[in-house]
Fold these 2 entries.
Entry 1:
Amino acid sequence: MKLGAQGTASQTVTFERMRRRHLPAVMRIEHKAHPKPWSLGVFNNELSQGASRYYVVVRTGGRVAGYGGLMFVADEAHVTNIAIAPSLRRQGLGTLLLAHLAHEGTRRGCVAMTLEVRVGNLGAQALYRNFGFVTAGTRRNYYPETGEDALVMWLYRLGSPEVQARLEELERGR
Ligand SMILES: CC(C)(COP(=O)(O)OP(=O)(O)OC[C@H]1O[C@@H](n2cnc3c(N)ncnc32)[C@H](O)[C@@H]1OP(=O)(O)O)[C@@H](O)C(=O)NCCC(=O)NCCS
């Protein structure tokens, strides 16, 4: 089942600014999502960075289903983390979450979004390509724990009518 931006009658999808009270649920997902999960200290530190960061949780069926965050550097929005609980993947939640982050970047006047992704993380790369992210390079040994390289991906012209139309399309589930 694919969820549109409004979810379904029984499964409304909502976004909430991430607060410390969300961190137990966030940490449970984080540990299942990444080979080298962020510590609680890293999340606390990110949440204390004020306007240079934007973290949200996505809720469905009354529970925290995932989360994501942006770091703003000049007029660029860097996706720092994004994850959906394993049992709730492939339902469109990651798409709605990334679209939400893209809207926030647009609202703040960013002209591009960027992120690093493991070369082996083909699922996430497919998600990003759906949005129009393109690969701009590779960072060798970016993940020292596994020695894996990172692809650097960019979504350019964030505020353009084309990108905004694509976001709307993705949010409608097409
Ligand atoms: C990446 C992640 C956030 C995607 O969340 P999600 O809710 O499953 O994403 P969606 O359901 O919106 O997927 C949208 C599309 O992305 C692509 N996609 C997502 N996961 C995929 C996978 N595992 N394999 C192949 N394609 C995938 C598909 O095109 C999918 O559309 P489809 O289901 O109609 O085929 C989720 O898999 C996750 O939390 N992974 C672990 C953490 C992680 O890797 N984060 C990214 C670090 S850079």
Note: The first helix runs from residue 23 to 33.
Entry 2:
Amino acid sequence: MIGIVLPGVNDDEVNNHLNELKMLAKTASVKTLGMVTQRLQKINPAFYIGKGKALQVIDQAKIIGANLIIFDDELSPAQVKNYHKLAKKISVIDRSALILDIFKMRAKTREAKTQVELALCQYLLPRLAGQWTHLERQRGGVGTRAGMGETQIEIDRRLVRDKISKLKLDLTKIESERKTQSQKRDNEYRVALVGYTNAGKSTLFNSLTGNKVYVENQLFATLDTTVRKLKLNNKHQVLLSDTVGFVRKLPHNLVASFKSTLKEMLESDHILIVLDANSSIINEHIDTIMEVLSDLGADKISKSFILNKIDLVDDELTLKNLKSEYNEGLFISALHHLKLADIRDHLIKKIESDFKTFNVRVTYEQGKILSQIQCQAEIIDTNYGDKYIDLKVRGREKSINKLLT
Ligand SMILES: Nc1nc2c(ncn2[C@@H]2O[C@H](COP(=O)(O)OP(=O)(O)OP(=O)(O)O)[C@@H](O)[C@H]2O)c(=O)[nH]1
Ligand SMILES: [Mg+2]
């Protein structure tokens, strides 16, 4: 595995990133044999690192018996192509390719499979062209049939493009099914658990709802969205969702193709950002999360921080510092069910802060609406007139408007 230390970045950061890359590799069943870092003033367009260093790394890889070299940074199609020539039997890939591979392994549902396949094709398309341009030049050089490479590139590109169109079409269909489900949930208060992979979102989801979604000490255990009703007290309930986690440098087209999975999150009324309090790079995790959220268009949704795995923070000073840094955060342990009531209380406050008081007039024939209002809001005052019933109610604007239209 190769990490690059550019000016302004410190060694610790790069080591943290490489350790995460190691976890990613492990998730993809790849055993890590060694890590190399290089200080660079700037990126070499041909090999990312210097050519001398590249040759040295390939030699070292051969000696220790590695058959794969993984860069923590994204390689351009040209760089991948150059390594293909230089490293021969040893494959050279980047973090994006590794993440795509893991997603492909993990995808279970039809939706996740289609989304990953789409992201893979999009990742492949420019790289495919690079490979063939190179072959074409080689063939031209030794005087084989001119234009053959060109034809082949066109065929391959067309195949991949056709596949991309088909996958997009499939996704549109899956999305429209999801839309119908989602409209049914329109008058409920929706809360989404969002966060870095392995932060404990699914564990928290299970602890709160008594559900059993898949939990594992591995990256990207969850690749789809699960929604469950969560009763907060006898007056309030929310729909809670658990979804796919984020990671540093999540390939852009992967985020884009997972948009329909993340739709539940985008339509939520509130986002709970779950953080691993025991990580030494929480701030970096927050940056990644915020970047992806803003990429997806979730800037306007209200958010709060949950600092999970507090049972693992055994140093008093660290805990004190965390509490002062995230003074509005909720400190919990999802695994040990510590302070989960704080989350419930927090959500109740959130819901009630969205409440407004309305004057509503219904006719005596609209008895059904009356009972529905009773279910969803608090009736403060009732006045029975000759023709109408005038009510003063307190509740969510969205739900009440929906009932009256
Ligand atoms: N010690 C401790 N471990 C926890 C806590 N919450 C979760 N874990 C562990 O952290 C690991 C990851 O938990 P998950 O719930 O799968 O994490 P996730 O955020 O859903 O991860 P992805 O689905 O991969 O994005 C598991 O091994 C959990 O047992 C906690 O409060 N304390
Ligand atoms: Mg999960």
Note: The two ends are 59 Å apart (CA to CA).
